[in-house]
C-alpha cells in the first residue's frame, strides 16, 4: 500500500509540474523510477505508456482553458512522433546497466538546464523576432525533442518549450498548453516503439497504472494553475530535485568514493536552497513593483 501511494504521488507531482511548466513529467518520473533500480528502457516505456493517458487528459484540460494553439500543435505532432519512435527503438536495443549512467547524465543535464532556464529567465527573452517558426526549423525541433524524450525518459518539454517561448510568438500559457497537447502524439509513438522492441511482457502495469492515476488527478489542476502560479519557483524546485537525484545515481554507478557522497549532497542542497531563496525574493520584488 505504501509503495502504491508513492507511485501515485510520483505521477501526480510529475504531471502537476509538467502541466504548469510545459516540461518535466518524463524527466521527473524517469528519474524517480531509476532510483528504484528499474532499467532505463523499461522505465522510459512505463512513463510513456502512462503519458498516453495523462497527456490526453492534460491536452483536453489545456484546450478547455484556452491554452492551446491548434496550428502549432498540428505542425509539431508528426516530427515529434517520428523522433520519439526512433528514440524508443534505439534505447530498447542498448544494455540497461551500460546505458543507465548515461541516461542519468542526460537527465542531470536537463535538470541543470531547467534550473538555469527558470533561475535566469531574462536570458531567454532577448530575442525580438515574433514570426512563427518555419517548418524547416520546426521539423528538426520536433525530431530532436521527440528522440531525446524517448531515449532519456524526458526531453520533449525541456527542449520544445524554451525554443517556442524564445520566439515570443505565443504567450507563455499557450506555449505550455501547445507543447503539452502535442506530447500525446510523442508519448503514443514512443510507446509503440518500446512495445515493438521490448514486448508487452516487459511492461510493469503496476507502475504504469499508478503513474496514470496520479497524472489524471493532477492534469486539470495543472492546466488551471498555469494561469496563476509563479512558474519560476516551480522550475527551480523541479530542477533541483532532478539534479540531486541523478547525482546520486551517477556517484553510485561510477563508484565514486563514499566519502565524497555526503559533501556532494550537502553542497548541492545548499546551492538549491540559495537558488530557491533568490527566486522567492525576485518574485516578491516583482509583485511589489506591479502593485506600485
TrEMBL record:
<keyword id="KW-1133">Transmembrane helix</keyword>
<feature type="transmembrane region" description="Helical">
    <location>
        <begin position="205"/>
        <end position="226"/>
    </location>
</feature>
<dbReference type="Pfam" id="PF01925">
    <property type="entry name" value="TauE"/>
</dbReference>
<keyword id="KW-0472">Membrane</keyword>
<feature type="transmembrane region" description="Helical">
    <location>
        <begin position="76"/>
        <end position="96"/>
    </location>
</feature>
<feature type="transmembrane region" description="Helical">
    <location>
        <begin position="263"/>
        <end position="280"/>
    </location>
</feature>
<keyword id="KW-1003">Cell membrane</keyword>
<dbReference type="InterPro" id="IPR051598">
    <property type="entry name" value="TSUP/Inactive_protease-like"/>
</dbReference>
<protein>
    <recommendedName>
        <fullName>Probable membrane transporter protein</fullName>
    </recommendedName>
</protein>
<dbReference type="InterPro" id="IPR002781">
    <property type="entry name" value="TM_pro_TauE-like"/>
</dbReference>
<keyword id="KW-0812">Transmembrane</keyword>
<comment type="similarity">
    <text>Belongs to the 4-toluene sulfonate uptake permease (TSUP) (TC 2.A.102) family.</text>
</comment>
<feature type="transmembrane region" description="Helical">
    <location>
        <begin position="233"/>
        <end position="251"/>
    </location>
</feature>
<feature type="transmembrane region" description="Helical">
    <location>
        <begin position="102"/>
        <end position="120"/>
    </location>
</feature>
<dbReference type="GO" id="GO:0005886">
    <property type="term" value="C:plasma membrane"/>
</dbReference>
<feature type="transmembrane region" description="Helical">
    <location>
        <begin position="175"/>
        <end position="199"/>
    </location>
</feature>
Amino acid at each position: 500500500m505504501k509503495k502504491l501511494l508513492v507511485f501515485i504521488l510520483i505521477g501526480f507531482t510529475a504531471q502537476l509540474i509538467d502541466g504548469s511548466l510545459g516540461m518535466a513529467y518524463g524527466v521527473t518520473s524517469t528519474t524517480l523510477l531509476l532510483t528504484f533500480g528499474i532499467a532505463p528502457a523499461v522505465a522510459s516505456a512505463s512513463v510513456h505508456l502512462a503519458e498516453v493517458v495523462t497527456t490526453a487528459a492534460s491536452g483536453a484540460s489545456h484546450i478547455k482553458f484556452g491554452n492551446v494553439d491548434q496550428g502549432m500543435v498540428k505542425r509539431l505532432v508528426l516530427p515529434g512522433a517520428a523522433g520519439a519512435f526512433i528514440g524508443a527503438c534505439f534505447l530498447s536495443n542498448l544494455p540497461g546497466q551500460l546505458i543507465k549512467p548515461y541516461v542519468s547524465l542526460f537527465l542531470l543535464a536537463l535538470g541543470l538546464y531547467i534550473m538555469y532556464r527558470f533561475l535566469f529567465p531574462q536570458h531567454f527573452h532577448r530575442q525580438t523576432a515574433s514570426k512563427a517558426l518555419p517548418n524547416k526549423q520546426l521539423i528538426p525541433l520536433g525530431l530532436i525533442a521527440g528522440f531525446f524524450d524517448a531515449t532519456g525518459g524526458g526531453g520533449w518539454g525541456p527542449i520544445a518549450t524554451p525554443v517556442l517561448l524564445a520566439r515570443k510568438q505565443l504567450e507563455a500559457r499557450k506555449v505550455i498548453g501547445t507543447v503539452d497537447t502535442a506530447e500525446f502524439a510523442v508519448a503514443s509513438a514512443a510507446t509503440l516503439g518500446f512495445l515493438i522492441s521490448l514486448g508487452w511482457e516487459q511492461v510493469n502495469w503496476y507502475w504504469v497504472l499508478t503513474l496514470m492515476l496520479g497524472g489524471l488527478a493532477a492534469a486539470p489542476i495543472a492546466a488551471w494553475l498555469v494561469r496563476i502560479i509563479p512558474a519560476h519557483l516551480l522550475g527551480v524546485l523541479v530542477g533541483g530535485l532532478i539534479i540531486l537525484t541523478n547525482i546520486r545515481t551517477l556517484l553510485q554507478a561510477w563508484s565514486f568514493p563514499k566519502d565524497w557522497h555526503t559533501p556532494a549532497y550537502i553542497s548541492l542542497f545548499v546551492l538549491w536552497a540559495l537558488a530557491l531563496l533568490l527566486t522567492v525574493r525576485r518574485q516578491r520584488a516583482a509583485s511589489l513593483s506591479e502593485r506600485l
